[in-house]
Target: Peptidyl-prolyl cis-trans isomerase
Amino acid sequence: MKSKLQLIAAAACVAVLTACGGGAKTPTAVVVPQPDYKVTTTVVGSGLTAATGDTVTVNYVGYLYDSTKTDGKGDKVESTIDSGVPLTGTVGVGALPTASLPAAGWDQTLLGMQPGGKRTAVLPANMAYGIASRDKIAVNGITYPAIPSNSALVYDFTLVNVSKAVYQPTTTYTDVKVGTGATAYAGSAVTVTYTGWLYDANAVDHKGTQFDTNVGGTPLAVTVGTGVVTGFSIGISGMQVGGKRTVVIPPSQGYGYIGTATIPSNSTLVFDIELLTVK
Model:
C-alpha cells in the first residue's frame, strides 16, 4: 500500500497553566472530545462473509472526524482509491491496517462484510490510532494533512475480496515432477528457484496474490533447516535435483502473526519450488 500510515508514537499533550506571579499549576491533560463508534452499511455485498482469520482485500478512504460536518468527514488523510493499491490483510486478529499499529475499529467494521459491500465507520481515537500521530505526507502527488494524536477518524470501506482462512496443522506438498539427481535432506546446501503466493481458497489452484519469485533471477542458496521458514525447509526436504513441488505452508510454519511487508499476518502460503543443486 503506497499510502501506508507511517505513524509514530507521541505522548499525550498537556497544558501547563501559569498563575500570575505564581508557579506552575498541576499539568492538566488535554481532553479531545470523541464521537461514539458508529457503522453505516451503504451497500450490502454478496458472496463469502468476512470472518476472523480470513484474508480480506479492501479499499478505503480515511478522514479526520469533523463534528461540524453532517457526515463527520473532515480533511482526507489517506486513500487506497488515490493510490490505486487496495490493502490485503488478515481480519479479526488485530492486524489491520498493520500488525505493528492496529486499529480495533477496522476489525469490528470489516467482520461480517461481503465482497462489493460498503460501510462507513466513525472511529473514536481509542478504536483508531490512539495517542499515535502522523506528519503531513505526500503520496503520488497528493498531499495529506497530519493526523494529530488522539484523533477520531471516519473511514469509507469497500470490501473487494474474501479468502477464507485455511486451518491445517502442518506443511503439505505435491510433487509436480520427481527429480532424478541428489536428494536434499536437513543440513544439505541447496539452490532453488521459487514463486510464492498467498493462499486463496477461491482460486482453482489456491494461488492468490503473488508476493515473491526468483524465477528468471538468482537462485536462492540455503541450507535445509536454517535460514528460511520451517515450512519451506519441509517442502524442500526429500526432493531430488530436477524435481518440482507445490508446497502449502500454514501460518504456524510460515511467517505467523508477524507477517512481512508483502505477507499479511496469519497467512497460509503456496510455493512452487524447483530444486537445482544439492551439495
In short: Confidence is low (pLDDT under 50) at residues 1-25. The CA atoms of residues 41 and 102 lie 22 Å apart. The radius of gyration is 24 Å.
